[in-house]
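We were asked to recover a plausible sequence for a given structure. The inputs and outputs are reproduced exactly as logged, with field labels preserved.

PROBLEM: sequence recovery
POSITIONS: 339
GIVEN STRUCTURE:
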């Protein structure tokens, strides 16, 4: 873990309101607030903000984005990947994954989806435990993206609110798409629907969607009664991806005894992209993404679509050797994340 150098922290015991800081300024918070907000450098970017409640910390950047570039226990590893170097070249410019958490609009298309986001963004500290990141309108797509990150006063819970607005003069169709790149060396865990025998239920449970390059004979996959698992392998660069209609509302990533859980909604009446997926995962080498999607929206000029994720983190998780031991280890923790 890289050390953080705190640049600015101004706390006034006399002021009960939050003001919006300048790019080179500090911030004012209510005294006694459980969440501390500090300006720090991170990942080679000087204008980042760290939210911490003493248990976990979240770091966002205002030099690019909107992006979340760190989430982890204080003093512990970043559960998010840090990828400052790889570049995808498109006719719109150079796009970098950077790692961490980003916000796109589905369905995926080249080059529309890959609009570079390596320029400074606006931001606003809201209340005593949240920060809103506001991207300039994408000139080629005509959309504007926002992420609001809210850290709970205690524990590990983080809420990420995504908002995309149509700034065009015409209507567009899209789905909000939240993508989290995880620190390599772990395994994604997606829930199966609760098992029912043929005697109990004749109708299908949900769609499972493959891409042209999906290969279930790849040993990185493990498909069981309870879970679908996909692990990273630094020595295998071939891409793998799967999508599901995730009605259980959670996906997880287990690495080095730490379990990252993200929760998100499934709407029965929603029309989801990619043949009905609200949850997807992708790997290539050490690269792992856990993605959630909102339903498709028809946005008239000025209209917005919104999508929420809720993050949780657990340590000391012993998954054991098989699906049964994994189930015993993580299911009680997953149940604790229910709202």
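RECOVERED SEQUENCE:
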């Amino acid at each position: 873990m890289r050390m953080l150098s705190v640049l600015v922290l101004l706390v006034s015991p006399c002021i009960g309101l939050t003001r919006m800081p300048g790019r080179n300024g500090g911030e004012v918070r209510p005294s006694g607030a459980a969440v501390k907000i500090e300006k720090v450098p991170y990942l080679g970017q000087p204008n980042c903000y760290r939210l911490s409640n003493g248990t976990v910390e979240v770091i966002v950047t205002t030099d690019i984005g909107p992006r979340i570039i760190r989430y982890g226990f204080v003093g512990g590893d970043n559960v998010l990947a840090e990828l400052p170097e790889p570049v995808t070249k498109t006719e719109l410019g150079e796009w970098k994954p950077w790692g961490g958490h980003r916000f796109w609009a589905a369905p995926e298309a080249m080059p529309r989806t890959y609009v570079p986001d390596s320029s400074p963004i606006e931001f606003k500290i809201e209340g005593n435990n949240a920060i809103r990141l506001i991207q300039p309108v994408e000139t080629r797509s005509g959309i504007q993206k926002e992420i609001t990150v809210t850290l709970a006063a205690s524990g590990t819970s983080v809420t990420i609110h995504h908002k995309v607005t149509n700034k065009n003069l015409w209507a567009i169709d899209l789905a909000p798409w939240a993508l989290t790149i995880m620190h390599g060396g772990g395994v994604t865990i997606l829930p199966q629907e609760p098992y029912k025998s043929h005697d109990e239920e004749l109708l299908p449970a949900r769609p499972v969607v493959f891409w042209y390059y999906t290969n279930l004979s790849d040993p990185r996959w493990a498909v069981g009664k309870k879970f679908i698992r996909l692990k990273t392998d630094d020595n295998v660069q071939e891409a793998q991806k799967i999508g599901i209609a995730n009605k259980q509302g959670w996906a997880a990533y287990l690495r080095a005894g730490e379990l990252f859980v993200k929760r998100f909604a499934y709407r029965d009446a929603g029309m989801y992209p990619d043949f009905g997926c609200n949850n997807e995962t992708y790997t290539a080498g050490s690269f792992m993404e856990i993605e959630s999607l909102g339903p498709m929206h028809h946005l008239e000029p000025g209209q917005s679509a919104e999508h929420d994720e809720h993050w949780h983190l657990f340590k000391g998780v012993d998954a054991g050797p098989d699906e049964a031991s994994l189930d015993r280890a993580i299911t009680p923790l997953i149940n604790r994340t229910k709202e």
